[in-house]
Amino acid sequence: MKKYNITVNGNTYEVLVEEVGGVASAPVTPVFSAPVAAPAFSAPSVAPAAAPAAPAATGNAGANKVVAPMPGTILDVKVSVGQSVKKGDVICVLEAMKMENDIPAPCDGVVASVNVQKGASVSANDIIATLN
Question: How many helices and strands (H and E) does the chain possess?
Answer without folding.
Answer: 0, 11
